[in-house]
């Protein structure tokens, strides 16, 4: 079979979602609506987090970057999909395909790392609440967030640089509606062993590695919640991580189903792919926004009995209700005295990063 270098082949053919023009028009309207909801939802979440000083906490810093990643991820996939739904030939240039592969790697890898960092934040908030301000200091969560971006870019750069040297066959049909590395590799007629090794390492790091971190964090979280004596306490503790747990389940569940399916272009594979690449970025801001009532409830606790009370120049710490009766080894005593600043502000900086201010 004759071989061609990728510089000779100028474009790839992408899979049609439907051969019926009427169905394609309906799909265009549907995906355009989903994309607009994704953009509006994530932008609004970013604006709210930026504007509200009460949300300048580690968890919401993670969430702001997660929203930005979802914006990028959705734009990389959906915009090209919308263009192809309106065109007769579903094509993408070689350069455009490699660029799409690069940004898919960056956004997917970064999101997985961010979710694992958020899981650790929830672990610190629920399992070590009195030490939360010390554990999740600014230096740590900044390193976690920017480290997530760094790992995402590193994995993308390695995989795409190796893909640039691939030699492609005459057959140039990608059995998917977008360019992803698993869909691109079968088109190569050259040795792809290094590409497979790089892809495997990226999958182990961003997929299995981050999933294990999330799993271990939530194993400890659930164990702590089950150890709380009161039903109300368990409910309050679980509410602080339920939104993140829902987002994690949706992301890893749909991603696992997507990558376990063969790259055959079957309807079931396309459904799971759309769920992973199109629907999930739209649902993330909705999931966290629906938990906003819990955020408001937690804010009200800061003026009630669960947070430090000022009495005649002193502040007394009262253990949050959801951890009453639960204390980790090494935690400070439940009652401490701090000196208030002029104007009633408390001198204890950890109070401003208390876990009850988080979702």
From TrEMBL:
Coiled coil: none annotated. The chain crosses the membrane at residues 23-48, 60-79, 99-120, 140-162, 196-216. Residues 41-288 form the G-protein coupled receptors family 1 profile domain. One of its GO terms (molecular function) is G protein-coupled receptor activity. GO terms for cellular component: plasma membrane. It is a multi-pass membrane protein. It holds the Pfam family 7tm_4. It comes from the Eukaryota. Signal peptide: none annotated. Its main location: membrane. Keywords: Cell membrane, G-protein coupled receptor, Membrane, Olfaction, Receptor, Sensory transduction, Transducer, Transmembrane, Transmembrane helix. Gene3D superfamilies: Rhodopsin 7-helix transmembrane proteins. It is found in: Cell membrane. Odorant receptor. Belongs to the G-protein coupled receptor 1 family. This is Olfactory receptor. It comes from Pongo abelii. The lineage of its organism: Eukaryota, Metazoa, Chordata, Craniata, Vertebrata.
């Amino acid at each position: 079979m004759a071989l061609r270098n990728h510089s000779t082949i100028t474009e790839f053919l992408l899979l049609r979602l439907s051969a019926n023009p009427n169905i394609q028009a309906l799909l265009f309207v549907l995906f355009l609506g989903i994309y607009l909801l994704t953009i509006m939802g994530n932008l609004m979440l970013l604006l709210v987090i930026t504007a509200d000083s009460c949300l300048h906490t580690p968890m919401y810093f993670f969430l702001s970057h997660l929203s930005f990643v979802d914006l990028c991820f959705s734009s990389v996939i959906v915009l090209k999909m919308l263009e192809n739904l309106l065109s007769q030939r579903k094509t993408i240039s070689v350069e455009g395909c490699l660029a799409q592969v690069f940004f898919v790697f960056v956004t997917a890898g970064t999101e997985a790392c961010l979710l694992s960092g958020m899981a650790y934040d929830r672990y610190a908030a629920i399992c070590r609440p009195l030490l939360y301000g010390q554990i999740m200091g600014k230096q740590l969560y900044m390193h976690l967030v920017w480290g997530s971006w760094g790992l995402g870019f590193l994995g993308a750069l390695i995989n795409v640089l190796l893909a640039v040297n691939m030699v492609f066959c005459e057959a140039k049909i990608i059995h998917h509606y977008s360019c992803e590395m698993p869909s691109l590799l079968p088109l190569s007629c050259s040795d792809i062993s290094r590409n497979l090794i790089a892809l495997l390492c990226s999958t182990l790091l961003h997929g299995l590695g981050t999933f294990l971190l999330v799993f271990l964090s939530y194993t400890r979280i659930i164990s702590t919640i089950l150890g709380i004596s009161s039903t109300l306490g368990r409910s309050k503790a679980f509410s602080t991580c339920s939104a993140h747990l829902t987002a994690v389940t949706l992301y890893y569940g749909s991603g696992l189903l997507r990558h376990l399916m063969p790259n055959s272009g079957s309807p079931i594979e396309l459904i799971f792919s759309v769920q992973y690449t199109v629907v999930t970025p739209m649902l993330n801001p909705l999931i966290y926004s629906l938990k906003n009532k819990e955020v408001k409830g937690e804010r009200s606790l800061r003026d009630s009995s669960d947070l430090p009370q000022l009495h005649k120049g002193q502040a007394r710490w009262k253990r949050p209700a959801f951890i009453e009766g639960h204390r980790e080894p090494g935690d400070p005593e439940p009652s401490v005295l701090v000196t208030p600043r002029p104007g009633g502000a408390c001198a204890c900086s950890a109070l401003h990063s208390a876990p009850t201010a988080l979702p």
